[in-house]
């Protein structure tokens, strides 16, 4: 009897699975909120309208249609309109539920249709958005169609920029199921929960928990908020009743004695705040958010302070762009970039030139990386147009993006700075009055953080618009000499007394496949970008920058090479090659190891110019980057001698004799009894 019953249950289960295979991917719903990935089996095709008999490609999100095309160095890459289609089943158990589609990013404008009915449009490719589809669905199979366009337009950021605007649903999508009463998913794509750090010190902390609610009836409800420590142990709990006349948000206060502070890389400690919406004592919705308690400030003469102690902020700008993938990155791609930042020894990062993936902010929280995060309000780069026009629709879009940036990332302790623009010019419509409006808006949205900008104009431009300043400078690449960066920093510091300044970009192109024996200055717009010049650029810049603590941030341009369709320089068209790592992340250039030796305390030794294999000069120098006190050089098995590191954690052996043919170069050292070594082969012609 039981045997027959089990057969029937198994058959019914298999039939259900078969029926569900054509309309993925959902199969159940619990009593609370569910967030269900919706990334597989999308049908993709190019069209300005919906077409029946057209060839479609099955794709998995994240996806972009430009990833391979831009590798050809095509300046007029396909900025067009395309369609994504999928299906899902609404199950009987979903009766009484509310349904939302949540997009982490669709570039640049997306209009969503459910069962051929328009349910919403979002303008902007780098911020999340949620659309309620409760009234658009029906029991059984439902269709979702998304029309996405990355075509150029004057009412959506970015208007220009020295990076590619990859078209597509380039970040994950999910379906959210909630009860009729829920914590709102519709507040500018945010979590609906805001952790406002009203007061934080080593002795105490006060946090206001503001929860946005979406209530469809007046049934008695309550909100329970729980603070958990890093081991998931309950620290405190408070419950508030929601009255029938309660508005759509509720504020609660948490007070804490002797808090464990989030202290950057040294101790990135995270609490968790869990907010639960209850009805008749049962949890009907829940949101959990990270809480990193910290306080920070910037002094115009002394730099950045975290929890009352000076912290030298240095790191690199980062683009979400990988060779062959464009901006359609997986969590594994983001994890790899974080590992590169950690190996580098960075304490900070500038997330350029747009809000980055949700996953990457979480990684920065967990690893203690201090962030500058910004909106895609950027100047023309190598284009001849403008990054701003005085237009009501564009200005509305920019304000929307700023609100989305702030609200979606409000609870990340890693974020300390909101960036308002990058390299805007003054030769078209004057953006300054509008930037002042943006600064006011940023302060209204989040008075706890500091605003900043990145300028490539003179030292007296844009200095009264934001709390802090940043300048993009390229001495020794786009004109000038390496050591002029120190003079520039001192003169700028003196020119704007009382203003906290940073260097928001500095860098030079470099190919690991192009080399010189001795330094030869390349043309920035030429094809020959030797690795040696890039390394020398960074050596001299860091020598100057490290001596100036008043620079509150020092940001290399850039972590990894990235796509820029307008560029026709370096090894390949369509690539900005200023990265410390190649576009595919496979080669760490010499400059990467220079910074690793200076920023990362983990013992290491690295022979520079190792890829400059074929040599024409018998007398050469050998340069080694190491943070160990001294090291010993061997050439073809012959001991050359020992050198101590200098102030830049570099050792140089001059006038080293090479022999015809292969020369085995070996460097050895010891640290706490452990041997470290590096080797390469140079061939004297």
Automatic annotation (TrEMBL):
Q: What is the protein named?
A: Beta-galactosidase
- From which organism does this entry originate? Pedobacter steynii
Q: Which family, according to the similarity comment?
A: Belongs to the glycosyl hydrolase 2 family.
Residues in Glycoside hydrolase family 2 catalytic domain copies? 301-596
**DUF4982 domain span:** 620-675
Q: In Gene Ontology terms, what is one molecular function of this protein?
A: hydrolase activity, hydrolyzing O-glycosyl compounds
Q: Which UniProt keywords apply?
A: Glycosidase, Hydrolase
Indicate the segments forming the Glycoside hydrolase family 2 immunoglobulin-like beta-sandwich domain, all copies: 194-294
Which terms under GO biological process does the entry name?
Answer: carbohydrate metabolic process
UniProt domain Glycosyl hydrolases family 2 sugar binding: residue ranges: 58-176
Task: Tell me any Pfam family this protein matches.
Answer: Glyco_hydro_2
């Amino acid at each position: 009897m039981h045997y027959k019953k089990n057969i029937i249950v198994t058959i019914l289960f298999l039939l259900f699975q078969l029926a569900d295979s054509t309309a993925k991917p959902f199969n159940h719903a619990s009593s609370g909120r569910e967030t269900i990935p919706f990334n597989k089996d999308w049908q993709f095709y190019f069209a300005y309208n919906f077409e029946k008999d057209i060839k479609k490609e099955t794709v998995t999100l994240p996806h972009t249609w430009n990833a391979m095309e831009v590798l050809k160095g095509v300046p007029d890459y396909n900025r067009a309109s395309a369609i994504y289609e999928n299906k899902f089943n609404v199950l009987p158990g979903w009766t009484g539920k509310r349904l939302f589609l949540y997009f982490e990013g669709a570039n640049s404008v997306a209009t969503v249709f459910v069962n051929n009915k328009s349910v919403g449009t979002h303008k902007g490719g780098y911020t999340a958005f949620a659309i309620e589809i409760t009234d658009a669905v029906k029991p059984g199979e439902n269709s979702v169609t998304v029309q996405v366009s990355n075509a150029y337009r004057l009412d959506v950021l970015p208007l220009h920029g020295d990076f590619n605007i990859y078209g597509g649903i380039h970040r994950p999508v999910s379906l959210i199921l909630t009860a009729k009463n829920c914590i709102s998913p519709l507040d500018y794509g945010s979590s609906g929960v805001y952790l406002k750090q009203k007061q934080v010190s080593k002795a105490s902390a006060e946090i206001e928990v503001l929860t946005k609610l979406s209530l469809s009836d007046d049934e008695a409800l309550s909100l329970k908020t729980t603070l958990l420590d890093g081991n998931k142990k309950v620290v405190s709990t408070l419950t508030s009743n929601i009255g029938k006349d309660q508005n759509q948000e509720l504020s609660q206060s948490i007070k804490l004695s002797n808090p464990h502070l989030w202290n950057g890389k040294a101790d990135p400690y995270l609490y968790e705040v869990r907010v639960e919406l209850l009805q008749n004592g049962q949890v009907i919705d829940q949101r959990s958010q990270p809480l990193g308690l910290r306080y920070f400030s910037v002094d115009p003469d002394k730099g950045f302070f975290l929890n009352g102690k000076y912290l030298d902020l240095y790191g690199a700008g980062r683009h979400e762009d990988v060779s062959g993938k464009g901006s359609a990155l997986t969590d594994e791609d983001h994890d790899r970039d974080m590992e590169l930042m950690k190996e580098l020894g960075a304490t900070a990062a500038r997330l350029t030139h747009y809000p980055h993936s949700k996953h990457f902010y979480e990684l920065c929280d967990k690893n203690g990386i201090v962030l500058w995060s910004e909106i895609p309000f950027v100047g023309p780069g190598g284009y001849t147009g403008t990054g701003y026009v005085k237009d009501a629709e564009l200005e509305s879009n920019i304000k929307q993006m700023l609100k989305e940036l702030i609200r979606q990332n409000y609870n990340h302790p890693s974020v300390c700075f909101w960036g308002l623009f990058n390299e805007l010019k003054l030769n078209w419509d004057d953006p300054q009055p509008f930037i002042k409006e943006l600064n006011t808006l940023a302060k209204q949205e989040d008075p706890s953080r500091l605003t900043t900008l990145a300028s490539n104009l003179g030292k007296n431009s844009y200095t009264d618009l934001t709390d802090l300043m940043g300048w993009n400078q390229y001495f020794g690449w786009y004109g000038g000499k390496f050591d002029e960066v120190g003079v520039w920093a001192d003169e700028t510091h003196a020119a704007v007394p009382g203003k906290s300044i940073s260097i928001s970009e500095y860098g030079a192109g470099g190919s690991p496949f192009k080399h010189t024996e001795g330094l030869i200055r390349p043309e920035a717009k030429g094809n020959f970008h030797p690795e040696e010049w890039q390394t020398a650029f960074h050596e001299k810049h860091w020598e100057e920058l490290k001596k100036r603590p008043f620079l509150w941030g020092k940001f290399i341009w850039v972590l990894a090479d990235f796509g820029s369709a307008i560029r026709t320089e370096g090894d390949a068209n369509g690539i900005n090659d200023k990265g410390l790592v190649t576009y595919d992340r496979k080669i760490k250039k010499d400059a990467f190891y220079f910074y690793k030796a200076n920023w990362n305390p983990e013992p290491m030794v690295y022979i520079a110019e190792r890829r400059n294999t074929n040599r024409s000069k018998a007398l050469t120098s050998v340069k080694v980057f190491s943070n160990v006190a001294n090291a010993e050089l061997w050439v073809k098995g012959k001991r050359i001698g020992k050198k101590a590191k200098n102030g830049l954690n570099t050792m140089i052996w001059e006038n080293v004799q090479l022999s015809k043919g292969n020369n085995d170069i070996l460097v050895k050292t010891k640290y706490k009894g452990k041997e470290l070594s590096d080797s390469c082969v140079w061939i004297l012609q």
